Model the fold of this input.
Amino acid sequence: MKVLSITATNAENYVRITVSNGRIGILSSSDPFKVESIILNNVYEKESELGVSKIVKVPNFMDFEMYVDGEFSCI
Done:
């Protein structure tokens, strides 16, 4: 079995991603391995006068935690 190991020397070109399962979305922060916000599917603020509803960002209500190689990385 081959093991792939990647080491980053700086985070200058770091591109954050969003992970979702269709019900809960996790938007990563510009800091590696940090969560900026959690987004729930079909939860919106009341639409504005222009007819556009806003996505509601929610607190870490489910106590999400991320571990990398067994070490705590973020909330």
Remarks:
- Residues 18-74 form one domain.
- The mean pLDDT is 75.
- The chain has one domain: 18-74.
- The beta strands are 18-20, 24-28, 35-44, 55-58, 66-68, 71-74.
